[in-house]
Amino acid sequence: MEKKEKLYEGKAKIVYATDEKDKVIVYFKDEATAFNAQKKDVIEGKGILNNKISSLFFQLLEKNNIPTHFIKQLSDREMLTYHVKIIPIEVVVRNIATGSIVKRLGISEKTEFNPPLIEFYLKNDALGDPIICYEHIIALNLTTDEDIKIIKDLALRVNKVLREFVEKANIILVDFKLEFGKKEDGTIVVADEISPDTCRFWDKETGERMDKDRFRLNLGDLTKYYEEVLKRIEK
């Protein structure tokens, strides 16, 4: 497998072409961003941890018959994935209220959602990734009604698998963001990454935040807690 030209660089990852047109290499950077990149820093080793954690979670989903873009981990910072066309929607699944939804709707912190709440956001940095509804998705022609049904079903399945898995590691899955892409044959798969950058994890016993909120809220020790997440899910 030969790494070729850079196809895309985002806030946390770089995507490279390979000599096989349906496969790409994803490189995880150490950059940390929050609040639509208004807050930035470089945290040494974060990319390595996110790559390893994402690889484990993608393998877990595949074992549970949830399709992903993941093929294999190549190195500490790189994974091989299928080349997919990203659907420009960020899907957030919420099990417990915290963060933006508390501010937007006046919901009490730590309110539990049963069933889990699904929200859609337009994937557009220039607009600040605004929250959107089903009608917006259809009106903007972001994807089809059938695709939305598949995405919602996959998101809830991912939630169930991840929530049960991390609970055994003494971690609460509070909420998380997913992105989806289409393979060349049209199959919708979970893409991007699944890591403490995109999930909120709380320690089940202490309530300590084990995710990017440590950066957002200036709590410190980000790599320490990412390392702890990796240690627990590797067991």
TrEMBL record:
The gene is purC. The keyword Nucleotidyltransferase does not apply. It is an enzyme of class 6 (ligase). Keywords: ATP-binding, Ligase, Nucleotide-binding, Purine biosynthesis. This is Phosphoribosylaminoimidazole-succinocarboxamide synthase. Residues 6-232 form the SAICAR synthetase/ADE2 N-terminal domain. Pathway: Purine metabolism; IMP biosynthesis via de novo pathway; 5-amino-1-(5-phospho-D-ribosyl)imidazole-4-carboxamide from 5-amino-1-(5-phospho-D-ribosyl)imidazole-4-carboxylate: step 1/2. GO terms for biological process: 'de novo' IMP biosynthetic process; cobalamin biosynthetic process. It holds the Pfam family SAICAR_synt. The lineage of its organism: Bacteria, Pseudomonadati, Aquificota, Aquificia, Aquificales. It comes from the Bacteria. Belongs to the SAICAR synthetase family. Its EC number is 6.3.2.6. It catalyses: 5-amino-1-(5-phospho-D-ribosyl)imidazole-4-carboxylate + L-aspartate + ATP = (2S)-2-[5-amino-1-(5-phospho-beta-D-ribosyl)imidazole-4-carboxamido]succinate + ADP + phosphate + 2 H(+). GO terms for molecular function: ATP binding; phosphoribosylaminoimidazolesuccinocarboxamide synthase activity.
